[in-house]
Write a structure and sequence with these properties.
The chain has one helix at residues 2-49. It is mainly alpha-helical. The chain has a domain at 24-50. Keywords: Membrane, Transmembrane, Transmembrane helix.
Length: 50
Amino acid sequence: PAPATMKTRPIDGFFVYRLLGLVGCNILIMKRVLLLFVLILCTKTQVFIL
């Protein structure tokens, strides 16, 4: 049982690390997408106002 637990722990840690990395990247991407979306909305409203 000892070698099996020793094998699974680094793999689980690796998957958790990958998951956290992907979540962090998704948060950064969402921030950029939201910023672009707000800029597009602002430009469209300015066009409508003009």
